[in-house]
Design a protein that fits this description.
single chain, mainly alpha, 3 helices, about 35% helix, globular
Length: about 90
């Protein structure tokens, strides 16, 4: 048995879609594949994982300028339209 660990979404997707493994990710990176029926999302039902949140990282000392603020708003609106809770 071979074990492959990667933080490259593209490589993980190719391995999973090729039937060569499983992935531990949020459904966001695989949203289209799940919607198209190519992949199935199986939630981990662990109490300690129930309150995990997704966030956007910015430099702590860098103010959120108007462009970043607009991008965060656009991402929030797009994610709100996704069915990430089912």
């Amino acid at each position: 048995m071979t074990h492959v660990f990667t933080n490259r979404l593209f490589l993980a997707k190719q391995m999973i879609l090729g039937g060569h493994g499983i992935g531990l990710y949020t459904r966001i990176g695989f949203y289209d594949d799940i919607a198209d029926g190519r992949l199935r999302f199986v939630p981990l039902l662990q109490e300690m994982l129930a309150n995990i949140r997704v966030g956007i990282f910015v430099l702590a000392w860098d103010p959120i300028d108007p462009a970043k603020h607009l991008m965060c708003g656009a991402l929030a609106r797009e994610m709100a339209s996704m069915r990430l809770d089912s």
